[in-house]
Structure formats: structure tokens, C-alpha cells
Amino acid sequence: MCGIVAYVGKKQAYPILIKGLKRLEYRGYDSAGVALIDNNTINLYKKQGKVVELENFASGKNIEGTIGIGHTRWATHGVPNDSNAHPHFSESNDLAIIHNGIIENYASLKASLEQRGHTFASDTDTEVLIHLIEDVQQKTQVDLVEAVRIALNEVIGAYAIVIISKDNPDLLVTAKKSSPLVIGIGKEGEYFVASDATPIVEYTKNVVYLEDEEIGVIQRGEELRLINIKNQEKTPYVQELEVHLEAIEKGGYEHFMLKEIYEQPQTIKNSMRGRISVDKGIISLGGIRDYEQKIINANRIIIVACGTSWHAGLVGEYLFEDLARIPVEVEYASEFRYRNPIINENDVVIAISQSGETADTLAAIKLAKDKGATIIGICNVVGSSISRETHAGSYTHAGPEIGVASTKAFTAQVTVLSLMALSIAQKKGSLSDSKFRQLLVELDAIPTKVEQMLESDKQVTHISELFKNATNFLYLGRGYNFPVALEGALKLKEISYIHAEGYPAAEMKHGPIALIDEEMPVVVIATKKGNYEKVVSNIEEVKARKGIIIAIITEGDTEVKKIADYVIEVPETEEALTPLLTSIPLQLLSYHIAVMRGCNVDQPRNLAKSVTVE
Ligand code: AGP
Asked: Which helix (H) or strand (E) holds 433?
């Protein structure tokens, strides 16, 4: 997700744009840029790095203009560098655009524009959009607003855009679909545009939130005009902002971690965006297309990662072995890199990393690469060190994860691993077509089921209240949910500082059962799929020792409900996809317990968001 900001009015635009971009840096910070109109010329400045790099680059330059646009980037297409930074010019340089979102059909649009003589300075989908708008304008001789409307009817994907034209220095054209965009209505005919209200609220509290497929026509000094892409006039609904700056950055949530937990229906959807077609029964992972045969023929897959990403890797082991029938080993990167592992060119190594900067993971893949292995990446930060070290990969598109405890990145990683395993299984023929389609339909339905999961928050909060003072927790799971038990325990440990252990449920008998007493809450993932009956007997074993059972169960399961002390229900889904649902209540449990214990949820003690040291 990126940050967009724009201004038109009586003041100099540049300081307003820069201040606004700094407010939006939490949305993305790999490059930034501004474009302003002065003397009927668009002057554009952009730079890789944080907004301060842009400021340094622009310092000393006489940047004038009372209309302008600004952008701070979270790369989706095209690595972070100066040329891929926004804003982007049209072919003639007469138009400039900023964009937050993903144009899914940009490749086909770009190809047809290139056939019409367009040349491109970047690898971005955004530049294609502004060239398309200008191409429409030139072909049909319509005004800019109509050209934008026609072009958006050809676009598939998500967008929040602002466009300026050197021929109309009083006009901002905005449009929105699936990405947020808010218009601030200032005094004396000035207007502000941004991804959220944080850059606006200090100037005005009167805002209009665009709805999907709406176009906002902002003419300096005139009333705001709204139309939709069907060319129907819409009446602007002006709201008065109540919230304060910090609250807006967190989207109204108390902490970034809670916001990111609640973003998961959207972020899981974004991880799949443009990569699956349920109707056609296909999965298309462009980032690994050239290496799929390599993966299919691999002797084995070695997954290297740390922390939560390592837990996602464990889920990946079950997915690839169960669905694609390829042997998988999951390695702590920090151990793998030092144990002189046996690796050769028939091995495929998958590196999983949210930040893409974890030192141990980076070192592990460099070692594997030197020994001839093929390296595939699953990262969240485009252009990160690990992603640049790989031969190929798929980004998770979860957007910046600010909370140190990883939540949406975990489910995004598991989503991408599910897509990879399913795609390879289909191409290998290790999965029947009917089973493949069944899993694909179910995967597509997961965001809605996660939405449903989040409704259990109140119940989880109640359970958190009862156990916030526990000194130890045990988390148990089997099969696909064994890694989820580990992840649930890590979440609790790292933000509430309560000691917690995750175990395969059957392993409890080999020692940990000695810990069970009436003070020990035992979280058991007991969904109806997999070794359900065995998990039920594990629960009985805990109960026999007066342990307290908090069970994650499938909706409607009355058997476990009878014996557990507390239950949290998850919607039914395919066994292979249960981690995407069972991990949600465990995230919420750790969050609420940590808040009740007065812990710093977003920045827990001793932890860093990215461990770039060894
Ligand atoms: C998880 O909540 C922690 N923040 C930590 O374990 C993290 O998953 C680990 O440091 C790996 O980070 P990465 O995904 O950025 O490589």
C-alpha cells in the first residue's frame, strides 16, 4: 500500500505535500516524489528512499506552484528505484499521475500502447495508466476528466489516483477503487487529497471519502464535482472528522497490531489478487513461472526462515508434501547456514521473510546459491535484500507490517505457499482436478471466512481476561495445525511476556504432560479435519490432570464443546487451509492478553521488526 497526497489552493503546495507524505510514510517508504505545476510546466522530483531523501534531493531547488501531487511508495510492480518512484509522466510529459493500488491487466495494456509508439521509463503499472489516459485523450479529443473515465473502464484492479495536466493548472482529477482516497475541503476553495485523513486533518475537518469507481473533479475555487465511471453525477457526502492524527494512522484501532489483524481479509485477498481464477480453475504465479519445472523436478525443497516465517514454512512443508508430493525440509536459517549442509543443483530453496532483510535468512540463501541450489523467495518488501538474492519468487502483497509481532504477514505467507503448492500439484498431476478445484474454491472463500472469524473477538477478549495472569501456556496442534500451535505460542511470548510452548499434540505424552495442572491453560487446535479423534483423546488426557482446555474448534462441533472449558469456533474449511483460520483467534488471544497486562504491543521489549544482525 502506498501513500498519496495532493493540494490545490492559494498556498505553496510543496511544503504541504512533503508534510503530508511524512504523515503517510507508515503506508510505504521505499521511494517518494512530488510533481507541481508552475508557469504551465509540470516539475517532477522523485527519489528512492524515505521522504527525507526526496527533501535532500530537492533542497536548493526553487520548487514553486500552488497545485501539486505527492507519493510515498510501497512497491508492487518494479523494484524501488528513482525511475519506478511516483509521480509518473504521460508520453508527452503533459500529464502526471500518482497511484496507490495494482493494475492487474497492465501488461496487456502496456503491450498495446507500445504498439502505438508509447515508450516507458519505468517498470510500473502506474505509468501504463497515465499513458493510457493520454492515449484515450488523443484518440477521442475529449477532456481530461472524460479520458480518465474512459480509461478506468478498461482497467482491472485497484486504484486511488490523482492526475494533473499542465494545460489545466487549476484541476486535480481523482478516482478510487478498492484503495482508499479522501478529499479535504478547505477554506477559500482550497482542496487536499490523501490516502487517509492524516495529512488533511490539520487543515480542515470537512472531508469526502470517495466510493469505489467514483471520480472526483477538483477545480480550484469551485465546488467539488463527483461522477462515477458510468458518467452518472454523484452528490458529495461531506463528513466532519472526529479523530486525531495518531488514531487515523492506526485506522481507528488502538494498535497497529490490531489493525493488521483486522486487515487480513483484505491482505489475504491481495496475496491472491491477479493470481487465481476460480472460474477457469487456474493459478498463475508469474514470479516463479520460469522455475516451476525446476520445482517439479526438485529432489527436495528446503525452506529456510526465522521466527513466524519459519512457522509459515512448516505449514508449507505439509502443503508441498501433501498436495505436490515433493519432499520438504524446513530449516532455521540460523542453524542451516552454519551446519555445513549438503546442497546441490537439484535442490530448491524457498526463503520466507516478511522484511526480506533478516541476516540469517539472507546468509542461508547465499550459501545455498553458492552450492548451486535454485532460490525462490516469498517476501513482503519488494526489492528487499533477500528478494534481490533469489532467482525468482512471489511477493506476499500484505502491505507494510508495522507491529513487531507478525500477523498479516504470516497469513499472507501461508496464502502464497498454498498457491505455490496447489499450482505445482496441478502441473505435476499429483492432485485430481476435482480436488484441485475444491481447494481453489475454498482458498478463494478464505477472506470471507476470516472476516467471520474476526467476529469472535469479543469471546476471545473474555477468555483473555480470565487468563491474563497465567504464568505458562501450552499450545497443542496436529498436522497442518502443529505449526499454528507454535505460532500461537510465539505470539503470546513475544508481546505478553508469558512463557508458552507449542507442541505436536501427541508429543505432550513425552514429557510436557508433567507440566499440566489446574493453573495451566492448554490451547488445543481441534478442528474437525485431520487427526480429530486423536486430538480429542489428547484433550481428555489434559482434563484428567485438571488442565484447563481452550479449544479452537470447527463451527458446530458439540463433542469438544462438551469437554473443553472454553471454545472458539472457526468456519469449516479444507484441512490444508485451516491454518489461515485457526491462527486468527490465537493472534487475538495474545493481543488482548498483552494489552490487559499493559505491555507495549506494537514494540515489545527487546524485539526489533527486522533482525538484520546475527
Ligand atoms: C514474529 O512475530 C517476529 N517478529 C519474528 O519472529 C519474525 O517473524 C522473524 O524475525 C523473521 O522476520 P522476517 O519474516 O522479516 O524474516
From this structure: helix 433-453
Cα separation of 319 and 499, whole Å? 29
Residue partners of 403: CB distance under 8 A and separation at least 6 = 255, 256, 257, 259, 260, 601, 602
Which sequence positions are flagged as catalytic? Answer: 2, 609
Please answer whether residues 550 and 463 qualify as being in contact, where contact means their C-beta atoms are separated by less than 8 angstroms: yes
State the Cα–Cα distance between residues 403 and 407, nearest whole angstrom. Answer: 8
Q: Is the pTM for the entire model greater than 0.85?
A: no
pLDDT at position 385 is 83
Residue nearest to atom 9 of ligand 1 (CA): 307
6 neighbors 194 (Cβ within 8 angstroms): yes
For 520-540, the pLDDT digits (tens) are: 999 999 999 889 999 999 999
Q: 405: Cβ below 6 Å to ligand 1? A: yes
Residue among 407, 417, 295 nearest 354 (CA): 407
Query: Which H/E stretch holds residue 42?
Result: strand 41-48
C-alpha cell read off for 314: 512448516
pLDDT of residue 555: 95
Residue 610 · residue 358 · CB < 8 Å: yes
Query: How many CB atoms lie under 10 A from the CB of residue 105?
Result: 14
Q: Measured in angstroms, how far is the CA atom of residue 50 from the centroid of ligand 1?
A: 22
C-beta of 330 in contact with ligand 1 (< 6 A): no
**Ramachandran region of residue 451, left (φ > 0), alpha (ψ -120 to 50) or beta?**
alpha
Gap between the Cα atoms of 177 and 192, Å rounded: 19
Q: How many A from CA of 132 to the centre of ligand 1? A: 40
Average pLDDT in the 58-77 region? 92
What is the rounded distance in angstroms from the CA atom of residue 161 to the CA atom of residue 167? 19
In three-state secondary structure terms, 508 is helix
Q: Is the CB of 384 under 6 A from ligand 1?
A: no
**Residue 115, amino acid:** Q
Determine if the peptide bond prior to 87 is cis (ω within 30°).
yes
